[in-house]
Amino acid sequence: MKTYTNLKFLLLFAVITIVSCSKKEDPYIPADPALTIELKSDAGDGELEVLSVDDVVVFTVLGSDGEDYSELATYYVNNEAIVGRTHTFTTTGTFEVKAQYEDINSNILQFEVLAQTERALTIDAPRAMKNQTITFGLLDNNGVNGAADATFYVNGDAISGFTFSSSTEGDFEVYAEYVVDTETYTTEIKPFSVYTPKRKVVIEDYTGTWCGFCPAVALAIEEVRDATPHVSVVAIHKTASSIPDPLDFPRIEELQAMFNVSNGFPKGQLNRTVAWPDPYPSSQVLAMAGEATDVAIAINSEITGANLEVEVKVVYENGSTAGDKVVVYLLENGVVSPQANYFNETEGHPYQGLGNPIEDYVHNDALRNSLSDLFGDAIPTTPAFQEFKKNYTFTVPSDYVAENLSFVVMVVDADNNAKNSQFAHIGENKTFE
Predict the structure, then answer these.
(1) Fold of 120-195
(2) Angle 312-419-369 (CA atoms, 0-180°, nearest 5)?
(3) Which of 150, 158, 156, 155 has its CA nearest to residue 177?
(4) Contact criterion met (CB below 8 Å) for 421 and 229
(5) Cα–Cα dist 343/353, whole Å
(6) Residue 181 above 60 pLDDT?
């Protein structure tokens, strides 16, 4: 595809490739898991607990190391610190409670404090997959569910019973009508939505800052991203002994061996196992991107100091398949480092005249670490519409720029083909979509 006229360039490229091919990395040693803390209460540990005015709640904090941090933690009710580990809820309303030990935050507990005639409307799946059954609840101030005796209205129309499903995606609203002592009351209106999972194609760019032809893949990825949001990009850097790459991924040779990715970069891979050959046609990606699929992924992350916590959730329309795994990759963006550029003198090329190397080249989507096993953690048998959830913790090294971190999460089958993927920035709550 390319014509090389500079013999010196050819010899340099061959030396780099040979050195890179023969490079042997030290064994990868994962860091000890970061401490996490879990907040519990004597009122219950569900996502929402219902209370009466003047109820007193006692909180407990347990660490992932097995220690009890209840007396050492600070507790916050609606972001206001309280004294001690008990709290009296003196007014009606919705409250969020969290705990903090040193710079480590806990999960959040939600409480709804009700008057005698008030009811809390609950939705078990505020964002549901098409054809998924959504169950509504109606809790009084003692936590008793009176849904069976209420009438629920979805988009203004009464439904039969207290469940709902839709074969089409869209945004919906629900409220309930109920009776207390012959008086009729209505709850607040709550939104929910139904979605069809869309496939995000995984693009893996095997690259190096020393590789003068590697920017070609980066340009092709930009073209794809301009055409569709349904891609997840991972740039996997490899160093050479003579020309170090500051973004070198120590386990790249394991990935190359598994997916038959030879040296002589750049190399592009789609959905892990399919080659994306030069000239990296966007049509090959766009033919798959955004297609309806039967598995969806959600990501939520939080970083406090150097402690990173990531929650990954997976849901299937038809249930999991034996051998399915979840892969969780930590990426870094915005890394400025010189990039070799063999297109500097190529007439009409976007990188013509930018220099060789390009001194202020910005590298994005660089694979820094695998929070899961490199090739994925097993997903147990998971029925249709039931969430599989897994939490990861990681101590962020000082040479990472925390605010530039992001994630790519994949669900892969037994043969490592990516079935779907999702990406999210640090601190972003990326829902199922």
Answers:
(1) Immunoglobulin-like (2.60.40)
(2) 50
(3) 150
(4) no
(5) 8
(6) yes
**Would the pLDDT of 389 be above 60?**
yes
pTM: 0.85
Q: Which residue has the tokens 């933690």?
A: 73
Q: What is the CA radius of gyration of the chain?
A: 26
Contact 266, 211 (CB under 8 A): yes
Residue 326's closest CA among 382, 365, 403, 269?
Answer: 382
CATH of domain 37-114: 2.60.40.1930
Judged by phi (left if over 0) then psi (alpha if -120 to 50, else beta), residue 194 lies in: beta
Tokens matching residue 292: 């309806």
pLDDT band (50, 70, 90) for residue 305 = confident
pLDDT in tens, 405-418: 999 999 999 999 99
Domains 7-30+198-430 and 37-114 share a fold: yes
Task: Give 339-342's long-range contacts (Cβ < 8 A, gap of 24+).
Answer: 339/209, 339/214, 339/215, 339/363, 340/209, 340/210, 340/211, 340/212, 340/214, 341/212, 341/215, 342/9, 342/212, 342/213
On whether the 7-30+198-430 domain is CATH 2.60.40.10, my answer is yes
Range with the poorest average pLDDT among 28-42, 302-316, 378-392: 28-42
How many angstroms separate the Cα of 223 from the Cα of each of 61, 226, 227, 282, 285? 48, 5, 7, 7, 11
Write the Ramachandran bin of 78: left for phi over 0, alpha for psi from -120 to 50, otherwise beta.
left
The set of residues, in sequence order, having a beta carbon less than 8 Å from that of 425 and lying 6+ positions away, is 405, 406, 407
The DSSP-derived string for 142-210 is: T--B-GGGSEEEETTEE-STTEE--SS-EEEEEEEEEEETTEEEE---EEEEEE--BPPEEEEEEE-TT
* Whole-number Å distance between alpha carbons of 432 and 294: 12
pLDDT band at 32 (very low <50, low <70, confident <90, very high): low
Distance CA 315, CA 335 (A): 34
Instruction: Name the token pair of 149.
Output: 């005796």
Domains of the chain: which residue ranges? 7-30+198-430, 37-114, 120-195
The two beta strands, 48-52 and 109-114, are: parallel
Q: Is 383 exposed, middle or buried (0-12, 13-18, 19+ CB in 10 A)?
A: exposed
